[in-house]
Design a protein that fits this description.
By secondary structure, this protein is of the alpha+beta class. It is built from five helices and five strands. It starts with 5 loop residues before the first helix and ends with a helix.
Length: about 170
Amino acid sequence: MQTSSPLKYIVVAILSVVALHASAQAPDTPALQVAKQFCAWHNKNQLDRRYRSLVTPSLQDKIRKVELLEEKFHKKHPNEKGPLGDGIPFRGLPDWGICRVGNIRKTANTATIHVLYKYSRTELSSDHLLLKKELGQWKIDDVLYGGEMNRSLSRELQIVTTQKWE
């Protein structure tokens, strides 16, 4: 008859506590992964072409309405900037800066993720990605612009659709 060493049980107990602690401290990777992908595509200047997998269906619909206005405008005015100007306004400032993910605030079905844009050594701006969990997946539902967060992507898209573009 073989008896187990008490040391074996102590090692198993310690490893179990370490594993539980590590899993409790792990960040919410799906929500953060969406923000990291947002920044990665932004930094490669691919966000306008690839955003669809990152945003909610309702935000896709709002963007699509403006894209249709853009297409219609360019048929009449091929050499002019249309309603979207330089593209979908995913960030509060039109300048291009390196995007990186900041802090996250999360509830069960929503998350707010701070994203920072660095333009030079000293020049920074920031926006906030608002995420919703829909059908088990985190998706961007809006982007709040700047520190005051009184402007947003949804609001800008709404303004564009209510203006007359001919």
